[in-house]
Amino acid sequence: MSRIGRKPIPVPSGVEITLSPTNHAVVKGPKGTLQQQLPAGVTIAQSAGVVTVTRPGDSNRERALHGLTRSLLANMVEGVTRGYERVLEIAGIGFRASREGRNVVLQVGFSHPIRVVAPDGIAFEVRDRRSANEPQQLVIRGIDKQLVGEEAAKLRALRPPEPYKGYGIKYQGERVRRKAGKTGKTK
Questions:
Q1: CB of 43 within 8 A of CB of 55?
Q2: Are 72 and 148 in contact (CB under 8 A)?
Q3: Using only C-alpha atoms, what is the Rg of the chain?
Q4: pTM for this one?
Q5: Which CATH code for domain 84-171?
């Protein structure tokens, strides 16, 4: 049996989950509302502050959907209670980010600044460098885990970290494999 799918989802106070017969879930909480069409073929039961997900059979597809459905619901509950955030680090000479209203402007080595419009449900925060050797941080926050991760991946793809000097945009805690540069000719 799926270990993830068997775990019950605790529903904190202040969170309201509405399930339709077609497995359309609406989760309302202090930070907002999320909606998701969950896979058919699994049964979702709600009782006294706990949501459980069960599956009818034991085929590979049903087992996969069992864990997926439970994870999607748990992520929605956590999103409307605590929210999600990803931290990007911007390193490089002249590389920087600045806020412009809800949007962010990146200067990452191109001839022009790149303006990134914040989609609905996403908030940007720019943390300044504490020292000259420390990279600048760009924080992406939201209640939808998928949307936060997707936006972080799009920003990182604008200038991925290069292996020689480490310049570019990377996730906080990401290790960039460094390469040795060219060696001079000796006679």
A1: yes
A2: no
A3: 22
A4: 0.86
A5: 3.90.930.12
